[in-house]
Amino acid sequence: MIRGSCLCGAVRFEVERVSAPFELCHCKRCRKASGSAFVAALSAAGRDMRFLGGEDLIGKYEAPILERPPAYRVWFCSRCGSTVPNPSADGASWFIPAGALDDDPHLRPDKHIYVELKAPWETIAGDLPQMTKQQIRAHRAAK
User: In what order do the strands lie in the sheet with 93-97?
Assistant: First the structure.
C-alpha cells in the first residue's frame, strides 16, 4: 500500500498499486497547476485508489477544453492548495500527483512529455525519452 497526503495532511489517500506511465509533463497547464517546471504523475486503477480522510476539503477545477475532451482537471486541498489525486472522466483510473505520495511508489519517471511546451528557462537533463505532442499522439494511435 502506498500512502499520500496534501501539504497540511488533511487530505489523505492510499493506493494499492500505481502504474506506468510515470510521466513528467511540461505542458502549460501542468506547469501552472504545479507552479513548477513540470508535473510528475502516475496512474492507478479506479479500484486501487481510496481516500482515507479530508474528502470534504477537496476543491475541483475544470479548465475549458482547448482542443478536444476531456477537460483538464485539477483536484486540490482547499485548505493548503496541494494537488491531490483525481479520477479520469470515465472513473476507470486516477491521476496521482507523485509529489503527494508519502511512500516510495517503486517506479521511476519513464519520460518527459510535451517538451516543446517547456518553460523557456528550463533545461531538461538526463537520458529519459522526450516526447512532443505529435509523438504522443502517434504513440497513442499505435496502441
Answer: 86-87, 93-97, 39-45, 19-25, 111-113, 130-131
Rounded to two decimals, the pTM is: 0.90
CA distance 72 to 30: 9
Helix (H) or strand (E) holding 113: strand 111-113
The string of pLDDT tens digits covering residues 25-69 is: 999 999 999 999 999 999 999 999 999 999 999 999 998 888 776
Tally the domains of the chain: 1
Residue that has been written with the C-alpha cell 477545477 in this structure: 61
The CATH code of the domain that includes 83 is: 2.170.150.70
Name the residue range of residue 60's domain: 2-142
Handedness of CA 57, 66, 35, 20 (dihedral sign): positive
d(CA 131, CA 29): 17
**d(C-alpha 44, C-alpha 84), whole Å:** 13
94 neighbors 46 (Cβ within 8 angstroms) = yes
Condensed to tens digits (0 to 9), the pLDDT of residues 106-128 reads 999 999 999 999 999 999 999 99
